Structures are given as C-alpha cells and as structure tokens.
Amino acid sequence: MRKATRLLRNKFIPFLLSLALILPIYVTQNTNPLIVKAASAYTGDASVSNKVDFSTDVIYQIVTDRFSDGNTANNPTGALYDSTKTQLKKYFGGDWQGVINKINDGYLSNMGITAIWVSQPVENIYSVFTDGSTSYHGYWARDFKNTNPYFGNFTDFQNMVNAAHAKNIKVVIDFAPNHTSPADQTNTSYAENGKLYDNGTLIGSYSNDPTGMFHHNGGTDFSSYEDGIYKNLYDLADLEHQNNTVDSYMKSAIKKWLDLGIDGIRMDAVKHMAMGWQKNFMDTVYGYKPVFTFGEWFLGTNEVDPNNHYFANNSGMSLLDFRFSQKVRQVFRDGTDTMYGLDSMVSGTQTAYEDVNDQVTFIDNHDMDRFTKAGASTRTTDLALVYTLTSRGVPAIYYGTEQYMTGNGDPNNRAMMTGFNNATNAYQIVQKLAPLRKTNPAIAYGNTTQKWINNDVYVYERKFGNSVAVIAVNKNLTTSANISGLVTSLPAGTYSDVLGGLTSGNGITVGTGGAVNTFTLAAGGAAVWQYTATSNAPTIGHVGQPMARPGETVVIDGRGFGSTTGTVTFGTTAATVVSWSDSEVKAVVPNVAAGKVNVSLKTSGGTASNTYANYDVLTGPQVLVRFVVNNASTALGENVYLTGNVAELGNWDANKAIGSMFNQVVYKYPSWYYDVSVPAGTTIQFKYLKKNGSTVTWEGGSNHTYTVPSNATGIVTVNWQP
Ligand code: NOJ
Ligand code: NOJ
Ligand code: CA
Ligand code: CA
C-alpha cells in the first residue's frame, strides 16, 4: 500500500449567572439552611477570559475544511478540490468564514458550546498524491508562520477569534510540530520533500538537511517509546527538536498564534516527540501568554500506558483522555464491556492522573469510527453524550456527532457536515448539559463516586463542596431497571431531570440522609439531578496553568473564597495575591523550592481551604538539554536513569530520576541519551544511575557538572564513572 494511503488509513490514529440559566431545582422540604441563600453571581471561571481553566467548558472539534464553506473565493482549484464533496481526500472548501458564520448565527452558542478546536491553521503542502490525498486535514505543514490560504488569511483568522470571543467561545488550534509533511529521503519529488518555510523563506528540506533539522532514522514500527519519537511517523518528515533552528522556529511560530488571541492548543502526536522538548515548549507558552494545552497520545482499546500518565502529570500539558474514550465506546457503542468496566476506568484514571479534571474527554474524533453506527439507535449516542458531559474532564464533541453523522475510518469519519439542525436530540442534550458545567461546580470540579451499578446501569455522583449532581444511565435499550437502595449526597427534596426527559429520564424524591425513593429508570434512560449550593466552605477546584516558574501568575478557581482578600500559600510560602473573588483568585507563584507543591488558601476570616496537591513549580525558565552517557553497560533488566541537584532532574531522588533513558536510535547501547527540560543558565550537578526494579546502582566518582545555556538547546556527553 502506498505510504500516503497508509497514513490516511492510520488507526493512530463575564458572564453573570443569569436567572435564566439556573436549571430547575424543586426543593419541597427546605430543611437545608444553605438553600435559602440567594445564588451568588460569579464571573471568573465562567468567562472566556480564563484561558488556563477549561473545566467549565464544552469544546467542539471542527475539521475546518469539512464544516462550512463561508467563502467560495478561497477554495482550491484543480486536483486539490472536489466541489461534489464526495472524494473525501480532497479539499471541500470549508474555512474560517464558515466557522464565523456558524458562530454568528448561534448554532454553536445555542448548543452551549464554549470552545472550538479547529484544524491546524498553518500553511500546508499543495501537492496532490495520485490517490487524491491532500492536506485538507491540516497535518502536512510547510510554514507554521503562515495561514492555510484555503482556510483564510490572518485577518480571517483574527475575525474568527474575535467573533468567537464576542460569544464567549474560546478558540483552540491544533498544532503539529512533530513533523512537516510526507517525504522520501531518496525521492525529492515525493510530495514536497517535507520542506519547511519560515514566513515564506525556505529553511529546510528532508533530503537536503546539512544541519540536522530532521530525523533520518526510517519509519517507526511503534515497537518502543523511543522508536516512536526519533523515527518517522508513517512517511512524515520528523523534526529534530534538539536542533536549535527547529526549537526556536516552533517557539516563535506558536507566539505568532498566541498573539492572535487563541485560548488553547491541541498538540498533535505528543507520544512521538521528546517530553523534555514539550515541557520546555510549555514553559515558553506559559512564560508568554498562558493557554490551556492538551496533547494527543493515542491509546487503543484497553491500553493503559504509564508513560502516558507520567506525561500528563509532568509535561505541563493535559492529554486527550483516550482511556475514557475507548472505554465509553466499548461500553455504550460496541457492547464489549459493562458498566463495571466503565466504573473501573473512572477509578483507574482518577488515580493515574494528578488532575483528572484537566484531561479532555470525547466519544469520537477524526481518527476513530464515528460513534453513531449506521442503522443503530441514536439513543446510544445520546447516552454516551449524557455520560461524557456530566463526567470529570473537559468534554470535546466532534463536529457532526450532534447530527448523528456516521462513517467508519479515515476519511469516512470526516465527511462534510450534513446539516445544522438545532432540534436533534443530541443537540438538545448538549444544550441542556453544557450550561450545567458553568453553573454547578460539581460537574466541573467534583469528585466522582459510584452509587449504584449493574452490567447495564450506572448511577454516579459528582460532588464539589456542597454542590452535587447525580446521574443515572441505563444502557440497555430494551429493559428498564428498578433502582432501590440508592443513597446520594443530595439534600432532601424533589428533583426533576435536568434533561427534561430527552433521554426518557424521571424525577426523584430524596429523603433525609440522601436516600432516594425507589424508581424505575426507563430502558435506554438517562437522567441528571442536581443541587447547586449557594454557600461553601473555601474549596479549590482547579489551579491553572498546571506548571509555573516563581513569579508567574496563576488562576485558582473554586468556591467559597469570600469576597475579601485572604491568603494563598504554595507549600508554606505566602504568595502575592493579584485579585480575589468568591470563585477565583489570582496569585503570583512565590520563590518556593521547585517540584510538586501543595497550593491552599485561607479566607480573610482565616478558614482554610482544601489542599490542591502536586502543583508543578519550575526552578526557572527552561531550555532543552540532551544528556548522553557513554560506556554505561548494564545487566539484563537494568536501565540507566539520570538525576541531579534540581527538581527538573529529580533532586537526587532515585525514584524521581529521569528515564529510563534511550539507547537504540540516536545513540546506541552502551551509550544512553535523553532530552530533558532543565533550568536555563544554571550550573547543575548530576549523575547517572542504574535501576533494576528497586535496586539502584549509582555512578561512582564526583558529580558531573554542566552549565545549561541561557537560551538555545544544549548537549552534554560524559562517560559512565564506574
Ligand atoms: C494524529 C492526528 O489526529 C491524525 O489525524 C494525524 O494524521 C496524525 N496525528 C499525524 O499528524
Ligand atoms: C546524592 C548526593 O547529593 C550526590 O552528590 C551523590 O553523588 C549522589 N547522592 C550519589 O551518592
Ligand atoms: Ca472556502
Ligand atoms: Ca518525532
């Protein structure tokens, strides 16, 4: 099969709380003193101005070429384009003006969408493969500092950002710095030879690469983490981020898009780039204009990868939650697992991810079969949407899922948007549940507890402070379920289904102690019951950006902070407070010892909040250094790691050492290497160690020392000291 064909078939595949938004809560037994207080308005985390917390948002993923053609004058001509929109590998003409039109006509905001994720906006290659493959998807970049002209020019992009912001919608761009475009080392006429341009000036090509901007290690067979990073992903010209030109180019490119006002980045193929470079890149973003960033680390069905968890917890960015997605697909769509499997995914990811609420959940995307199966009941899609929109994590809805579009595999899963019907059940489900993420912090920030379960029925509770949401889902489309013995944290009273029966849900009556009267959950039924507290003890739900240098300002979201300024501490050190409201505080990270730090606050009255653990504080601005150690021979089962005297190297703690290091591609055993983000301009001390399970063998001799460059990348090579 042609390489390009393989690629395309890859499996890798301020607003005030208005009364109108308060969803119906009927409390008959007003026994809870909290209920009588009026709802307090908050502006912080509900606002588009908060670019570092997406917990309250619902993202809508748009394949720009396939959504709406708002300007036919910018469409490609000739073999690049198919006006019939049937040859799915060609451009169809969708563009930013089309997105603007759907923002302005209310299709997105009426659905409750508060963020859009658009295709990589940068200029892509113009060549067409003989099988018709083109760059319509945006993943074949040639100039990261220019726009894809078929999507629009910089003015169009800016207009889209402005239109979105005017409707309280954030804009996330896809960004794919792993590679340029398809290339063949020995055939320069294959596509565009991976050529890279800097604002119109050619700076590199795959076959003529004297300065090493690309990897020339062949294609990855996906056999190891290292193999996937330093070899080509399919036929894509793989960039070497340790190369100074590439490193500085990508950082200046992202600044150009940040300057246009974007609110987030979806980072492509993060499993295929060194984590050290990506952490360094995130430090650049956070040091410039911080935005929420989530990476794509594909996981297959039932795949659990500790490297994926380590990345989410230590790279400074979140991930698309593939564990969530694959499990929801198994349970709801394919019937290959039960609600018990869903529940263990929930508890497993809660443990594995330090900030599970920051991971981005989804039921389908452009690399998966569309969720709705041709001929299947659309109720299955509806139930998966109800589940996802009320679960922990930031939901992302793939364009057209609300229209029940079908299509298996790439490119059938990327057809032109079939219509903009705002009366589908799925559209109305999003419309009912998206606003709840803004109003009830239990949905955005709460913990998840399973309350009632069998193979088909899952009842779970989300709770944050005194706010509660209880959701019941019966995935069995033919048999109803009798739910008895359910006990929740809901205050006594009567609750209607937030969904208003869109998925055959019922109301419930809750007695003292949260006991719910026995009820029947309809076949294929789902209901959402919620209680939004108006008074809370101080409770932190989120701290963003997820990683910062001392001196950077972070945003702390939650409830119950009070209206007068209190105190914030990182570890035991007080932080300078920049602003303070009942739901949002901004504070400057103080000069604390770098590493994982506990963040907490106290109200002006001295009431302490919960502790927000594992906040990542950096030593200072970061640069990328490649560490190489030669002559490090190991016994079977032993691997080489790196540690040293800064938090970025694990502070001499063998358990936090960096690695295991690599030894197969760029350097080969008994040499080992690893790309690490370390504090710029600092003289560091370090050592290598060998680990075999819990057995640690340190290098002998004195510590190695190295002065990290103050900018640009570095490399330090030493011999293992026996
Ligand atoms: C993952 C993207 O989601 C996929 O569509 C793309 O082909 C590869 N990365 C390469 O950019
Ligand atoms: C930690 C010490 O601080 C460092 O100097 C030493 O080299 C390693 N432990 C190994 O003993
Ligand atoms: Ca167009
Ligand atoms: Ca790579």
Give a description of the structure.
- 19% of the residues lie in helices and 26% in strands.
- The chain has 13 helices and 37 strands.
- It has 722 residues and is α/β, with parallel strands linked by helices.
- The chain has 4 domains: 5-23 and 59-186 and 241-439, TIM Barrel, CATH 3.20.20; 445-531, Immunoglobulin-like, CATH 2.60.40; 539-617, Sandwich (Immunoglobulin-like); 622-719, Immunoglobulin-like (Sandwich).
- The longest helix is centred in the middle third of the chain and has 16 residues, at 244-259.
- The site of one calcium ion (CA) has 7 residues, from loops.
| Spatial gap, N to C terminus | 50 Å
Mean pLDDT, rounded to whole units? Answer: 94
Which strand order do you get reading across the main beta sheet? 12-11-10-5-2-1-14-13
> What small molecules accompany the polymer chains?
1-deoxynojirimycin, calcium ion
Rg, rounded, reads: 26 Å
* Spatial shape: globular
Number of helices: 13
CATH arch. level architecture of the largest domain: Alpha-Beta Barrel
Strand content: 25-35%
Helix fraction, binned, reads: 10-25%
The number of E-state strands comes to: 37
What CATH calls the topology of the largest domain is TIM Barrel
Class per helix and strand makeup: alpha/beta
How many individual domains?
A: 4
Can you tell me the CATH superfamily of the largest domain?
Glycosidases
CATH class of the largest domain: Alpha Beta
The largest β sheet comes out as: 8 strands, parallel
Low-confidence regions? 1-45
Give keywords.
single chain, 722 residues, alpha/beta, TIM Barrel, Immunoglobulin-like, 4 domains, 8-stranded mixed β-sheet, 13 helices, 37 strands, globular, disordered N terminus, binds 1-deoxynojirimycin, binds calcium ion
